[in-house]
Amino acid sequence: MKHLVTVSTLETNEILEILDSAENYRTNKQGWKPEEKMFVANLFFEASTRTRCSFEMAEQQLGLTTIPFEVTTSSVQKGETLYDTIETLASIGVQSVVIRHPQDRYYEALQEKVSIPIINAGDGCGQHPTQCLLDLLTIRQEFGSFKGLKVAIVGDLRHSRVARSNAEMLTKLGATVYFAGPEEWKDEENRHGTYLDIDEAIETVDVVMLLRIQFERHEENTSELAQNYHSRFGLTVERERKMKSHSIILHPAPVNRGVEIADELVECERSRIFKQMQNGVYIRMAVLARALQPIERGLNNDNNYQKCYMVK
Amino acid sequence: MKHLVTVSTLETNEILEILDSAENYRTNKQGWKPEEKMFVANLFFEASTRTRCSFEMAEQQLGLTTIPFEVTTSSVQKGETLYDTIETLASIGVQSVVIRHPQDRYYEALQEKVSIPIINAGDGCGQHPTQCLLDLLTIRQEFGSFKGLKVAIVGDLRHSRVARSNAEMLTKLGATVYFAGPEEWKDEENRHGTYLDIDEAIETVDVVMLLRIQFERHEENTSELAQNYHSRFGLTVERERKMKSHSIILHPAPVNRGVEIADELVECERSRIFKQMQNGVYIRMAVLARALQPIERGLNNDNNYQKCYMVK
Amino acid sequence: MKHLVTVSTLETNEILEILDSAENYRTNKQGWKPEEKMFVANLFFEASTRTRCSFEMAEQQLGLTTIPFEVTTSSVQKGETLYDTIETLASIGVQSVVIRHPQDRYYEALQEKVSIPIINAGDGCGQHPTQCLLDLLTIRQEFGSFKGLKVAIVGDLRHSRVARSNAEMLTKLGATVYFAGPEEWKDEENRHGTYLDIDEAIETVDVVMLLRIQFERHEENTSELAQNYHSRFGLTVERERKMKSHSIILHPAPVNRGVEIADELVECERSRIFKQMQNGVYIRMAVLARALQPIERGLNNDNNYQKCYMVK
């Protein structure tokens, strides 16, 4: 079954296949679309505009039918397990679920048991595979390949869903990764990059990938943090001037304007921030197609409920 | 107008017609679908995954257009009556409403006044007609008819929306109904069955219909209740072994695993729990078709607003 | 770009064009529909049944695809600005946004900057242009034109989104406007009408336009307010008898029955309250068509993200 729960388990060729498929949807407006109605549901247990609307758009572009599911009005309120929720949806005819969940690795126990593919739209401080893939797509559109590229990932490395997967994947694909950011947010476990001083990093790399400060996950006095952060580790107007002429800026958004990046740089010529969002739709189309195409061909479309586990 | 607010007011032949229509949607993938766009809205004033998603799926399968309606973002927050909400929806073109509401018999004052059919998706501790109908469909698929069948309804009989309607309908259709469960949850007003000891009931019947303990409606110490309940009245692995070889298990779900039923029995060979959910979609298609078909034929499509009550 | 943020900036001929377009959708079931999929999103930061469902219905009737957006589950929770939310939606392919927001004139800073048209579905105590337009449509259907008509606007003039725009537009179109209501709710800034005693107003005019008391925005003892209000300023059964034979009643709804209007008058022969709701769908179709048609023709469909503001 074509779950997508993490990028780490994808082979290099699988990653490139997804990028090619996304690029195909983008440029030719071509690619797989189901011949008959197919059904998905989006289960968002955490706030999200970008990711959620992006999946909804991808589903509509593919011609899928989305069954609305709101956590606040669901039986999850009655204490139903995620497994039972998914199997309930499967039994009524939903053929894949997109899930964002606050718990790290929520998918681990599930992926062997559920009868429809799970697409992970973010788990706690863990993975966010479609974000990683859309970052890769945006970089490849710019530079053609990853070999020899230098990428700086800047900011709250420890709490970021994006930093770990991106560092791992970029390294795997041949890029060199640097990290920069506050001492207290270093991620010692992430061995796919080298720490550099912020100013050195900015001047060195082809891609400056800024991370979002997740104020909602920190307890410090946030206005002080914000102000200090910008001058110390943010992409200020001064720092942007020192970037190489061809270098680009990425940010997963939502942006804290004036914190990770100067307000006036969000839509500057180097910025690919809105381009990333646009690419997000094509990546999600590719990932949904990857999950649903085998089902359309009947390969795991054996939702033969009642599932029959024998009881001795 | 083809409201469906309770099963009690349905004639036997009407019940069988709905079951036949549902079976037709299921097996032949055939049955009525509207020729032009038709519009419905789902008004859920209480949490629900199964019922709500099941109606959404049924609507999509029929090719209906669902106008989103969220209680939390609606004028219900401004104190609007249910009647005015329904007539508002009718006036903008909604042709039928599916309603779940915490108030028993919320539909009583409404059904004579509103201008579009109401499909009751559950009222307080009252009725849940589509649940009853999907239970009947699941039983008929197994045994071909209801005559002579023995059915045990087990659990919180007093607070269950399902118990009363099911007992009444099964009796009407020729089955014999037994009840089992805690003394304090007996429903003295329900005269369509006989109380039996849980173990005797389990060994006797063709269908063991478990009820959900609605922890959210009880005040007792729930973990104590849960533990005692399973050994005293739950379907344990031991009890399951004493069921007749052909007997089946039903549960309206969401299941409290390890309480009403042992965890490992939820998906056992006898269980029709996920089958019930699947049947739920077909039943809802049948019920929606029953409400909307006459409107399509113009039979009550006279939404000639402004309605003109003369004032003397 | 064809924003619709206020009616005040519309020329008379633009107003009449929108009314004609709406009438065309209503009577001939004709008018513009997009040839390919087009995408909109509804951003409701305040409760609303009527307006929201009406826009959803208008979108469905036009064959648009609505991308679901719920404030409670969005990044607005993470402090994202409205501008960034809109540009995010634009970058994933949304082509117009419908916005209701509690802040007066939220659109002012936005309308010059965003890359897709905004349709204002109500801002604080400010504007509600589609409500104004549907009121105008309902009046024109009745009387053919506005010249020489007398209209009374009755009630909470100071807090009403409707009163100011309607008075201004009706005056512009040739009608004479009167106001009536409690002293403390007079709106001294509104110079498009003359204050009259309630009983005099009722007997004089062709259209009695009642305003909703927004109990949720007042602090007084509301039941006392309600009772006094009805006898002092409400449309009682007695007052209705003194209306001219051809006069009609409007109310933007939701109605507080027995307060602004006697319960039994809500659906009386003179009432156009549900007719207004019906017209609301056609007005919104016209307004959406006005925003989207130029985009379909490629006139502002240059969503060429990344937008490139040069940074010196």
Mind explaining what this structure looks like?
The structure is a homotrimer of 312-residue chains. With 312 residues, chain A is α/β, with parallel strands linked by helices. The first copy, chain A, is built from nine helices and nine strands. The first copy, chain A, has two domains: 12-127 and 277-296, 3-Layer(aba) Sandwich (Rossmann fold), CATH 3.40.50; 129-276, Aspartate/ornithine carbamoyltransferase (Rossmann fold, 3-Layer(aba) Sandwich), CATH 3.40.50.1370. In chain A, 37% of the residues lie in helices and 13% in strands. In chain A, the strands form two sheets. Chain A has a five-stranded parallel beta sheet, with helices on both faces. The first copy, chain A, has a four-stranded parallel beta sheet with strand order 2-1-3-4, sandwiched between helices. In chain A, helix 2 links the parallel strand 1 and strand 2. The two termini of chain A are 28 Å apart. The model of chain A is unreliable at 301-312 (pLDDT under 50). Chain B binds chain C through residues 37, 39, 41, 65, 67-70, 72-81, 84-85, 87-89, 91-94, 305-311, and chain C through 44, 47-50, 52-54, 56-57, 60-61, 66, 68, 70-72, 215-216, 237, 240, 253-257, 264-265, 267-269, 271-275, 277-278, 280-281. Chains A, B, C: Carbamoyl phosphate binds at residues 50-51, 100, 128, 131, 253-254.
